[in-house]
Fold each of these.
Amino acid sequence: MNSAPLVLGSSLAITRGQSLQFSSRDLAPKVTVPYEVNAIRMLAYGAAPINATGEPGVAPDSSLRGFLKFQFTLGPIPLTDHFIPMWNLCPVRQAITEFGGYFEWRFSRPLVVSPAGRIDARVQLAENTPNAGGAPTITVKLAYAGRLRPDLDKMPAMIDAPFVSAWDTSLTGTTLANDGISLRNPLARPVDVEQFICRVENDETGLNGDDSTLIDLRDPWGSPFNRFGPIAIHAMFPSATRSFPYYGQLPSEKHFWAKLNTAPSLTYRPMISYLGSRREKSL
Amino acid sequence: MGDASRILEGYAGSPVTLVAQVTLEPGDSIDLPADALRNGFGERILLDSLSWAADAQQSLDTTNPPTVTVGAPGASISATISLNGRQITGSFVPLYCLGTSIGQDVEHVVLAIATGGATACRLLGAVSSGFWRFDHPLDLLAGDALALHLTHTGLQNLPIVVSISVAGRMGEDLPRSRWIPYIASWLPPAIDPNTPTATVPVTVTSTERDLVNRAGQTIRVHRLIGRLLRQDVTLTPAATAYMKNLEQVFPTVDGTEADTPSTRLFANAVDGFLTMTVRDSGANDNVPVALPFRMVFEPESRAWECDADLESSGFYTVELTLDVPAIKDSAIQPAIALIGSYEV
């Protein structure tokens, strides 16, 4: 049997302060064969219609970037360290998608899922989301892109599973440095880290916050990424990508260190994540 | 020029490009001259890409110029391509379905001159272009010719200058390639976006004769392409007024330069509302739950990278549904294509 394209998806409506789970039935193929997932796509927009002429879906969806947070798990295998802000799952690619409310977490290696397995997803909309389309209802759509793999006679013994952990200052308040429960590896196996993403949000407007403040990122052993000291966020995470390539391994129970020189505030909410993957026994 | 390393590591051969150009009036359907894309060099060529450009010519003196529509030149011209009787296209394929979009921000340009005032300008036409990078090189023996047939579908009431070029490497020592690229497309009737409602949606469905494998053997499908032409949604470069429900093709200056997105509300494009399901001839539900167009085809590349097999005469069927009105459009013209290759 041959491989076949596959895109699974689901949709739900959410209001501020809610945390909801997507329909598990929608997020698994109808046939019981192995399949692989290469990317997770997320899209959000306000309820329709909201304007005088009745045009649908017109909403400040770009301001949902950091307010909408996702959690993914493959059975007992977590793909995210709790909830991760949507825009921390991918670098900036093109304006058309960055400002269009569309984000895609592309896996560096396909995630092979066993027959009847599925990636469960939960989404959370922050209580303080501004201008939520006039009406506080947001439609969130989710899709997994990949392909069916009936050509696999049996599941591989080990699979590549992506993983992301973030320091979300919208949750941690005004502290200047992260603690051991963010930017961490809570898993039993080491994580191969591929890149860091840093976004700065303005909670009042939902737009970008000040990215000229300084940041000091260090590896688990205290070595600074920038040996000359703290560096401006926009210098380390340029606006064209908001990404900092990093090729290294994060051992189990270790975490990266991040320190800011300006306390997070209502108009300045840095959100820093790392994207990586690790090997796991297949289910 | 394509990437020589994909042809033969350590050896590239001489770079070579074959170019053909033709002007089509609305309704024209012509064969390119047989020698237009012939290998007359006396040596083998390994082609690794096909480029196209469509330039819609609009007269400055036109008193009532036709509307220039986003993406129109690339959609207005359809092509069939064959090599020595082997079909590279399974049917007429809109030019902008040939390959992935390199970038929505740059593939389409509306030409205009300022005529005074902050937003006043006169349209001069539009240019769109694209690049089909073959997943496997295509062998073009000495004397062989690519046969092209081009049709101006009339979606845009302007003459269009079409340029087609193929590029690769030339040399007797190049390895042989037994791969033939293949593409088939589905161009349904345009959707009237003013009529659908949640209870009476507009639905169009492809048949087993559209996205079909006519190669006579199993093909490797590398990707599916999904494009939406939104007719009569004009885009004026100098305009500052933001049109709701309009896809933003050009990045905002403040967004790209200062990284401070405009404070205006960003509207979703139609591809956030037009939903689709896909099945294949192997009884697989490729998209079992209706998903927005942009969730299936990446908005940046307009492609769905899938890397799958499709048996001879196998097909995909696509169902598109619009259940909300999109009042800025007079019509929405979807186009879906599959791109693959097969070994002979």
Amino acid sequence: MATKSDVLDFIRIYADKMVEHRQELTDYDQAIGDGDHGINMSRGFKAVIEKLPAVYEKNIDEILKTVGMTLVSTVGGASGPLYGSAFMKAGAAVKGKDELSNEDIILAFDEAVGGIQFRGKAVEGEKTILDSMIPAIKAIKASIADGKSMAEALVDGEKAAWDGVEYTKTIIATKGRASYLGERSIGHQDPGATSMAYVFQAAKEVAEKVGC
Amino acid sequence: MVGIVVVSHSQKIAEGVVELAKQMSPEASIAAAGGMEDGSIGTDVSKIFAAIKAVDEGDGVVILVDLGSAVMSSEIAIEMLEDSNNVKIVDAPIVEGSLFSSMESSIGSSFEEVIDVLARARVYKKF
């Protein structure tokens, strides 16, 4: 379960992570892309933090939608429309709610993946955001089905996400700027998969803090 | 008149393309949506959305893009419109496409005719 204040915490913690890991994400992107992922994500989430007070009183769906709308106009690179679509779809999945059950959280994650796939027209195994996101969500679902708490499931989810990031080192990029490099993209981890792994890390930290 | 929106990661590219197209077709309804709010490199859905609104006279709008997120950001801007039937991203070279389509639209051609011209801009030989 997650309250509205947990959702707001998650957004704040993730925004802090994007500032903290700005250089790291940019370095990964410089190796195989256009070298702006960390700059773009930190710029986008700084704008999100500025917008957040205006929606404190709104329901969770409005908050997530605002995050998405802000990202598509402030990130600048491909991660803007991709993360933006993810947050907008997640918001649409939990319409009118000011509290999320575990089923709601899983539905929001599923819709977010659907949003990214629709927008980016990518599938798993193409060295993208999806390579950490899809395994993470699968792990969360399996853990919840095994009767674990959401906090425990998110520990498993984050681990699966980082395993997914490791996996991106072994594959060729076929989407985005990195695809111009072909086989030379092997050996490098995907910056988008990395920034997505921090989503699950942020969610896990919130869950651990509130003990859900 | 069919409207034209030029989307680039660079504000200067988008504005330069519009400047060039206007020099040949001063009456064309064409708008630049390049870069971010602060002028840095990137594409911005709200800028694209505003540009579509600015050139939409009810006869359709074509969007020319450079690459990558320009396509995805334009798609989101189109989805945000109440009526997106006659708004289309066209896969054509951004400079040639903008010049040809602004000439075509400014002589009063239809949405379909402008799109047809853009298809030809794709295979236009420079020499």
Amino acid sequence: MFLRLVADSFTRRPRRKVLTAAALSLGMAVVTAALSVSLDVGDRLASEFRSLGANLVVTPQADSLPLEIGGVDYRPVNAGAYLPEADLPKIKTVFWHNNIIAFSPTLEVRVQSWTPQFSPASATFVKPAANGDALLIGAWSNHDVRLPDGGSFVTGLKQTNPWWSVDGAWFNDGEGECIVGSNFAKKNAVLIGSPLYLEGSVAGHGLALKVTGIFSGGGAEDDGVVAPLSIVQQYLQKPGQYRKLLVSALTKPEDEFARRDPKAMKADEFERWSCSPYVSSIAYSIRQVLPGTDVRVIRRVAEGEGTILTRVRALLWMVTFAALLAAALAVGASSAASVIERRTEIGLMKALGAGSGTVGFLLAAEQLLLAFVGGGIGYSLGIILARLVGLKIFGVAPEPSLLVLVAVLALAAGVTLIGSAIPLRRASRYEPAPILRGE
Amino acid sequence: MGALGNGNRAMFWRIVRRLLGANRGRLFVILLALGAGAAVTAALLNLQVDAKRRLTTEFRAFGANVIISHKAATSWDSVTTVNDSIMDAISKSIGPSGAEATSFLYVVAGVRGPRGGAPVNAILAGKGRTGVHQVSVTIIPPPTNPDDPWYNLAVPGDLPCTLGVQLAKQLDAHVGDTISILISDRRRTCRVSSLAETGGPEDSQVTVMLDFAQRLANLPGRISDVEILVPGTPKQIDEYVSALQEQFPDLGVRPIRQFTDAQATIYGRISGLLNFTVAVVLILTALCVMAAMTNVAMERKNDVGLMKAIGGATRRVLRLFMMEAALLGLASGVIGAAVGIFLSIWLGKQVFGVAAQPRLIVYPVAVALTVIVAILSAYPLRRLAGVRPASVFRGEA
């Protein structure tokens, strides 16, 4: 009988029920979209901040001090220490290897450059006067790193310095190619595709490269040349060695706890510290796998990122909470309305001898059914909405999450029940007779 | 005609009053829905306007994002410097308020640690005055507080300096030690007042006040660059950079793309997200009121039937309900939006640590939006136009 009553209520006035369910689905769709986006957005924003580039820098421990002014290192050539490139795959074996999204070793040297000029008189290419000093940076563009576990990891400057814009193409790692900075290209009239000769005081021999692109990074590197690391190593006669490593890692904003000295921590504290992806604990674990290095946090990037990320996350959750509240109110009001309009029916049921409890139970069952149907439809709609929003704002759609489904169904059920509880309580006080008389 | 018009108007308002007062419970639900919607909308709108502005100030954490230096890049043969009078010129430029300009002089110097030994080559950075823009840039004169030894050359004893951690390690120097700095035959001692660890070039520098560095390097009145922290939206930063470039055609003005580009992306993402949420809340409010109004439409069939039976034109009847909705929207908008603005002040405090400034423009916008939403969501009442008086009186639903 109970089920029949519920079924009857749905079939008898389908339009009314569809309306309530529609309101519910729309409300829940919005909740789903807001929740999915905010659950996903934390991670998404963290990776967005990686467009700031590396937040860790690795240098040899025994290095001489860099004498850098405006990005130009005044250190004499050959001064300082080098690190073995062969150790690099180990970085992807640290506990937080999944958070390390890019790294790129670099080797810098000061060179003289010249572009051969065609001399019509002798019909040959001649060497003009040198263009002057330039900075040659050896780096990876898109290097395939073989990992110890057999996998591979593609990384390089493209990933660690995402703000570089390249006109033309990046060089291929291992080839005799290079990209030149925009200032360098302008000053020396270098075009894409033209050959470039470099020589320095290092080994007394030159290096011929083909220019594949012109890049702009907005720093001192715009006056330099970037070539594959292996080519620069050969040229410098430092095979398999690099000078500086930039690491870009996804981190958790640092708090009080993160800033404590790991050496002064108790065993359990240390474990908790090293199991949180703080930039300092990632630096610590990299130091463990790369002996003889200094791993420093680039404070300017890491701290700026930390502050803004914390703020924005709080803002997002607050906004999501506001959307939840508004949705709950909307759904609650519509279910309250759906109970109010059924006063006559309630009166009749009571006149026929149904207790307030039975009536309440019946209506609650109906509302719950509606909540699950509406919530389910709302969830599917919300996922589509979240995809649209995610694609529009972040360019990537958030993954549908089971957690959101559970939260949405629970919220739908809770809100409809609370929304209908208030009119139901009033309904339980109704005297059947006046209602049936139509008063 | 006039009397009839007056009578009609009085009747109109009387009916509106009665409609509003007919069902207190329902009135309360609608008012609550609209009011809550207005509050959340106003809070989010205010927070949105404020958050966008606040976000640009948060970007300060990244430090300077525009550098002005000699057009010819520094090369190995010569360290290029510019006249420090450009600081005064910058002060006359119009830029986003809150911009900070600091002048620096960088030279290579020998540094000898407290334990003696051969001097280590390091960069000596002379840090000059900082100007903070309010409306345009104002240069704050160096503090003349005699207790601040950083700026006061007259304080007896050694001048303070900040030592980068890597240099400190090499020199085996600690806070409080005295180190000496040599450039050719000039030599001065200074006391390490603090250590700096930034992960950047500062780690291997020794930083002193600009005057000290200029004297030691024998470069009076010269600086290497001016580093400017420009807050604001990406557009404002771009405009300021072009304005500066126009003002200093002989100098190189370049934005640090690493930071300006990232700021632009992040700013775009977050403001998009905030816009989306405001739209969502408006839709939800409309939904909420529409649900309540559907209910109203059902209940009012009898009233409408009666009105039509005694000669009320459909349009006039509908106008009554529109007016009712508009009044409801106005009342709840006025109260809700005020509550919302107070809410956003509190929310702003929670998120940014600083109370959000109430924006006056937000209030009328939120009220207007609420009224529009209320009228639009009275759409279900249109169904009443189709009511046939006879069937209503016969009791057919």
Amino acid sequence: MKVFKPILLLAVLATLFGIGFFSRDVLAGAQPDTSALSRVFTPSEQVTETPVETFQNNYNYILAKHGQSTTPEKLRYAAMSGLVNSLGDPHTNFLEPKINERFSTETTGNYSGIGARLGTDPLGAKVGTVFKTGPAFAAGLKENDIITSVDGKNVAGLEVDAIVEKILGEAGTAVKLTVTRPEKSGEISFEITRRQVEIPTVESKMLAGRVAYIAVTGFSEPTPIQFEEAIRDFDTTNPAGLIIDLRSNPGGLLDAAVKMLSLFVDNKPAVTIKARGNKSATLNTLTGQTVKGAYPITILINSDSASASEIFAGVMRDYKKAKLVGVHSYGKASVQELRDLPGGASAKITIAKYFLPASGDIGRTVDDDGNYVSGGIAPDMKVEIPSGFDFKLATPGKDPQLDKALEYINGNRLN
Amino acid sequence: MQEGKSTLWTFLVIILAVGSLCVGFLARNKADMGSLASKKPLGVGLLATTDKFSETSESEYFFELAELLRRYYVEPIEIDQKMASGAVRGMITSLVDPESNFYDKDQFNAFLASQKGSYAGIGIELDYKYNQTELKKLQAGSNEVDSLLLLPQIFVGSVMPGSPAETAGLQPGDEIRIVNGKYVVSGQDIKALRDLQTAVTEKRATPEKLNTMREKIEIMVKNVLSAAKTREHLLNGTEGEIQLTVLRNGKEMRLDIGRQTTEVKPIVQNNDGTTSLRFFKGSAREIQNLKFESGIKIDLRNSGLGDYDEMERALSQFLPTGDHGGILSPDGRVARRLTTTTAPKNLPQITLITDNSTIGAAATFAHILSAAKVATIEGTLPEERSWLEVQTLPDGSGYTLAIGKYTADLEKSKTAVAAKETPAKPEAN
């Protein structure tokens, strides 16, 4: 009895040490990392630096030698961005306190706009659809106008996202835009008051030759119902074919995409979500929702088709329900979570990935310079819009991608 | 009595239990972070002020972020040297300094080989130029910095003798525009576009001209090649051909240049009686054996970057003993003193042939000799270059850091810088 007591005590202490040691792994929901144990019990004569030491040493060195041209704060944040970028995932980012503030406003949606869709242009941003319900339409902004400056600042060369960011603001405030219009010389100035604009996510029309056309510009809550209504309406008229336009659709709710897929794909795996530690869940399309239409379907995609729109297009293709026309899609197939860091900064981290039935992982990867390496969905029929082309969205003859889709449908029509 | 003893025991056991729990937790921290206190970090002691802007130290911050990623990132990852190198890349890039460059493993190996005179790729050195107005804004801590205007212009610095680039007729000062069909887009391109746009607004140019330029830039942006990738194409690899378009005197030129290894010797006796000198690693010993009786004409053109320590070692062949100025860091500290303790019996008559292809250590060499009035310069005195230190990282990548510029009179410059800086010295906060 007397011998057992100290042994028991030792055992309890060892167990508690273990709990303390592995608590980090367990709390993170991972298997205890036994290699960490060997790291602490091997003699520390190793001359190799740990990554933390490597960083600290070089940080000290650069700051000491380059003193005046940088600040500790700038250097630290630059290092943290670099650390996160080394993963090669463009959606896992370090957000500095300033940027972080902006990101949270964006996600909570207090921003208002002018009611227009913008696309890339070297001079600034090219105006796409101008929504009839918005203030931009009322002010006279037109499709194909090129926004060259916002509030007096020249925006040539900036990314569209950065320009959109400048245009968005609190409802009731005004934004000044300078615009060049292709057929006019000189510039036109606008002052537009921002307000919340309801943007329809589904627009449909019947094209010549009884080809149904439906543009989906986002995946929000009402989208599946609007989409289904439009599709079922078309179905009653027995169309020759269907074109679903997902160009520049940035995505949205994954559930919405799965519901919409259920109109064409009956009770099959649509997307598998995989998280850390082999945790995965598969979303199936619904049963008994399919429309009867056996007409050929084409889906238009471009490099701004991302997330839910790529999943929709990819699944349709994987089940051979549609042909894809246009250019390579963006390649966003993952879920991010925001984690706070000291000093008001945070990290946006990819915590799960989507996998398509046959296409698998379509996530975009980039190299250390941020250049595209892989990802996205390749179209079945590649059609680019030539630079300087007098493009008019969804207008036969003025939209080469739509024309290709029409050509395919007309070649495969049943009636 | 018995009861008191048992309470004491219970108490002790609890203390021990809590203790082991804590020891376990701390041991894990140590295992993951490494013992930071055990080693003296590089550059400690040079640090004038400590980082006060936040209570978390840099290494804690690094560790926290790395740990967040390790815990939550979708793929299983470890805190590894790749992360540390990524962080260093981030820091070096943030300096926006044309001479401080980060190189990944392959690029760094090619860089180290070139410091020994063995050039891969087409056999050249590159030279980067940034928009000075924008750079000054950045260094002044302005929030209005336009990162697009800070994309560097890339020029040919030196063309190495015997290289495919030399054979093809590439020249120092040529601006790299297109590499294998991909475009180098610089801040100058963006600026030109904006200037033209302003001109159109003010009716000084026609919208047609703007449209043409807009289409050109649109194609460039769609097929852009980053500065790092440009370097990789031109300076790495020993196979394949590079289709290059350069801008020379305002005219575009197409050149096809093969990639191979070009070995360059540190000392070459030229037919015209001149001696080409390059400060490759190990060259100081060869320079010591160099015989020059009365005078020597040294050709420093197309010098390559060279190795600064090697050049410093070679100085004693050309200068009288004593102080020869030093390197002043950007904030006016003496980063390095240049002193020679030995000198040749008779100082030779030295003529240096230089131009703007004289870069790196050779450019600084020319400035040192010229300031010491021991050499006459034939041609144009090269642009002033920074003194570079080279650092290797554990994963095989590495970087150069510009630590300051050469100054002949350290004391005078120090006071001058101090006088200029003191009133407006910004707080670290």
